[in-house]
Design goal:
The complex is a heterodimer of chains A (113) and B (111).
Chain A lengths: L3 E4 L2 E4 L5 E7 L5 E7 L5 E8 L2 E5 L6 E7 L2 E6 L8 E8 L8 E2 L3 E5 L1
Parallel strand pairs in A: 2-11
Antiparallel strand pairs in A: 1-3, 3-8, 4-5, 4-9, 5-6, 7-8, 9-10, 9-11
Chain B lengths: L3 E3 L3 E5 L4 E7 L5 E7 L6 E7 L4 E4 L2 E6 L4 E6 L8 E7 L8 E2 L3 E6 L1
Parallel strand pairs in B: 2-11
Antiparallel strand pairs in B: 1-3, 3-8, 4-5, 4-9, 6-7, 7-8, 9-10, 9-11
The chains are: A mainly beta (113), B mainly beta (111).
């Protein structure tokens, strides 16, 4: 049962372009996350939001900017993409802090040419 | 910063066999979670084991936690082809919203 939705599934773009990814969760969770997963499957936390407030920004380049309109939505914008941004971007949510399960979306695969 | 990592990168077994994936971490934790990621999907939690627990089970899955050696294991009994996936352990010291995932262990279960 899908409860964390991500769009688009795939995106191919040129170096220097701007891209936006959307994430929505229907679980009523307070906390949402963005992760980057590289080609070796390594998962790294990028941002954490709790009740629309940014609480973790994990040394991510400035061209990445998360946006949260309400606690069910967390989008990710990348200004001027670079080749190293090619990866799968995974959105997740949890009901509170680490003591609870994270539910992940299917991911958005970004390819930068 | 804390690092959680699996000890082996790839495992291969035949259906019906048992397999164990190991994980070690370097700082104190409040809980450790095991996730499974199938191809084309996001990770899905299998087991959450808290620092005051030594063992947790979920069907054919059994997780152990040894806080003295800072290690955990996930055992799968009677493996099935659908268990083919990448398995991650993940930790977050003190619930600071910065989960750290291990490098992942790729498991292939052959018919």
């Amino acid at each position: 049962e899908t409860a964390v939705f991500q769009t688009p599934n795939y995106h191919v773009t040129q170096v220097g372009n701007e891209v936006s990814f959307n994430c929505k969760q229907t679980l009523g969770h307070d906390t949402m996350y963005w992760y980057k997963q590289d080609s070796k499957k390594l998962l790294k936390i990028m941002f954490s939001y709790n009740n629309k407030q940014l609480i973790v920004n994990e040394t991510v380049p400035r061209r990445f900017s998360p946006q949260s309109s309400d606690k069910a939505h967390l989008n990710l914008r990348i200004k001027s993409v670079e080749p190293e941004d090619s990866a799968v971007y995974l959105c997740a949510s949890s009901s509170r802090d680490w003591g609870s399960e994270q539910y992940f979306g299917p991911g958005t695969r970004l390819t930068v040419l | 910063s804390q690092l959680a990592e699996e000890n082996l990168w790839a495992l291969s077994v035949h259906e019906g066999e048992s397999v164990t994936v190991n994980c070690s971490y370097k700082t104190s934790i409040t809980a450790l979670q095991w996730y499974r990621q199938k191809s084309g999907e996001g990770p899905a939690q299998l087991i959450l084991i808290r620092s005051n627990e030594r063992e947790k089970r979920n069907g054919r899955l059994r997780a152990t936690l040894d806080t003295s050696s800072q290690s955990s294991s996930l055992s799968i009994t009677a493996t099935r082809c659908e268990d083919t996936a990448v398995y991650f352990c993940a930790t977050d010291p003190g619930g600071n919203y910065k989960p750290t995932f291990g490098k992942g262990t790729s498991l292939v279960v052959h018919p």
